[in-house]
Design brief:
single chain, 239 residues, alpha+beta, Nuclear Transport Factor 2, Chain: A, 5-stranded antiparallel sheet, two-stranded antiparallel ribbon, 6 helices, 7 strands, globular
C-alpha cells in the first residue's frame, strides 16, 4: 500500500511540475508548457515516458479495470434510471464538454449556465475569465474533437431518482489552449497548436441532466481510479 501511494505521489509531481505551467486556462485546467509542443520537447517527453514506463503501465492497468467495473455498475444503475446507461451518459457528457469549451472561448459562462453547477459558473467567470480581462489577457481555447471519455469513479446518492449522484470522468480531447495579450496579440503562456490533453471532469446528476461540477488535472486520474466507488448498500446487485 505504501509503495502504491509513493508511486501515485511521484506520478502527480512529475506531471504537474514538469508538464504544466502554474497558470489557469481552458475550462478549469492548466496550460501545457509550450516546451512540450516543440520537437525537442516531444523528444524529452518520450525519454521521460521510457523512464516512467513501469509507472505508466501500472496507472493504465488500474484505470482499465476501474473503467470496466464502472461501466458494469452503470448498467445496473440504468435499471433504476435510464439516464445512467452508458450510451446516455456518454452522449450528455460529450455535449456538456463541447458546449463548455465553446462558452469558454466566447468568455461567457452564462451561455452554459444550465450545463454547469452555479458554483462552477461563478468560480470560472469571476475568478478566471473576468480576471484575465482586467489583466488585458485572453485565453485562446479551441476544441477540435473529443477523443475518449472514461468513467473513473462513481458516487451515487440514495435519492429515489439518484439526484445528486456524481461521476468523475477522464476526458481526452484535442485542444488548442494558450494566453495572449489583447493589445499586442503576443503569446503570454503556452503555445499555439492543437494537442491531446486529458482532464478529469466531475459531473453531477440533477433533475434529469448531467451538469459540470468541477474539473481536475489529468494527473489525478489514478487517484480517482483507485478510490472505491460509493454506492448505497442494496441499490444494485453485487457482482
Amino acid at each position: 500500500m505504501k509503495r502504491e501511494k509513493l508511486l501515485l505521489v511521484l506520478l502527480v509531481v512529475v506531471a504537474v511540475v514538469i508538464f504544466v505551467d502554474p497558470v489557469y486556462a481552458g475550462p478549469g485546467g492548466v496550460i501545457a508548457k509550450g516546451l512540450f509542443k516543440t520537437w525537442y520537447g516531444k523528444l524529452l517527453m518520450f525519454v521521460l515516458a521510457l523512464i516512467l514506463l513501469p509507472l505508466i503501465i501500472y496507472m493504465k492497468t488500474r484505470e482499465f479495470f476501474a473503467v470496466r467495473k464502472n461501466k458494469k455498475e452503470l448498467l445496473e444503475l440504468s435499471r433504476i434510471n435510464n439516464d445512467f446507461s452508458w450510451t446516455n451518459v456518454h452522449k450528455q457528457v460529450k455535449n456538456v464538454f463541447e458546449r463548455v469549451y465553446l462558452a469558454w472561448a466566447n468568455e461567457n459562462m452564462e451561455e452554459v449556465a444550465e450545463y454547469v453547477t452555479p458554483w462552477y459558473w461563478r468560480n470560472q467567470q469571476l475568478i478566471y475569465l473576468d480576471q484575465w480581462k482586467e489583466n488585458n489577457q485572453k485565453n485562446i481555447c479551441k476544441l477540435k474533437k473529443v477523443e475518449n471519455i472514461k468513467p473513473l469513479y462513481l458516487e451515487i446518492s440514495n435519492n429515489e431518482k439518484l439526484d445528486g449522484s456524481k461521476i468523475a470522468f477522464s476526458i481526452t480531447a484535442e485542444v488548442e489552449d494558450y494566453l495572449i495579450d489583447r493589445t499586442t496579440r503576443k503569446v503570454v503562456y503556452g503555445k499555439p497548436g492543437f494537442d491531446s490533453e486529458e482532464k478529469i471532469w466531475v459531473m453531477e446528476y440533477n433533475a434529469g441532466n448531467w451538469v459540470l461540477d468541477n474539473i481536475e488535472d489529468g494527473a489525478m486520474s489514478l487517484a480517482f481510479a483507485r478510490t472505491p466507488n460509493y454506492i448505497p448498500s442494496g441499490l444494485i446487485q453485487a457482482k
